[in-house]
Specification:
49% helix; alpha/beta; 4-stranded mixed sheet; single chain; 4 strands
């Protein structure tokens, strides 16, 4: 998939800001506060309500950090690695969305992951942002559809992950 150069530039700026705010990172999952291995498998959990940033953070964690890991949605900790929950390591910071933090902490460099995270950064931190960019519009629209796709949050998450995975399989836009 072809990624607009401005998204890569924005991602580099975000990563630099994250480095300044969080310091060097990249700790293995076993050293992340709140991590727990259950039956040899790592899983993640977050609390409702789910938003575009939560969806992208879950996608980054389950596709790039621990492929195939599950995500649980609960009001309180069922164990596992927490994200986008107050007090956990992988949460929003001043000027950073949760997906920005996940990208930086786990040093994810995949071009699509960086571009999607840059879009969500704009959506979360500058919600009135509009762009004359088909990729930005597609990601924003696809995640908004997922948020509203079902009253069951786990189904909304599944829809968002399906949408994000689909970005990897389509030809690049012209």
């Amino acid at each position: 998939m072809k990624v607009h150069p401005l998204y890569l530039l924005l991602a580099a700026v975000i990563a630099g800001l994250a480095y300044l705010l969080l310091g060097p990172a990249g700790a293995p999952l076993s050293s992340v506060p709140g991590s727990e291995v259950v039956s040899g498998e790592v899983y993640y959990w977050t609390a409702p309500p789910l938003e575009p940033d939560t969806f992208v953070a879950a996608w980054l964690l389950t596709r790039f950090v621990t492929p195939g890991a599950a995500v649980r949605i609960a009001d309180s900790s069922p164990g596992g690695v927490a994200f986008d929950v107050p007090g956990c390591e992988l949460q929003r910071r001043p000027g950073l969305a949760t997906s920005d933090v996940v990208l930086q902490v786990h040093r994810i460099t995949d071009a699509l992951a960086v571009a999607v995270t840059a879009v969500v950064h704009e959506i979360e931190l500058n919600p009135w942002t509009t762009r004359d960019d088909p990729f930005f519009a597609e990601v924003r629209s696809g995640l908004a559809e997922a948020v509203n796709s079902s009253p069951v949050e786990q189904e909304c998450l599944a829809r968002a992950l399906e949408f994000l995975d689909g970005l990897r399989t389509r030809p690049a836009p012209p």
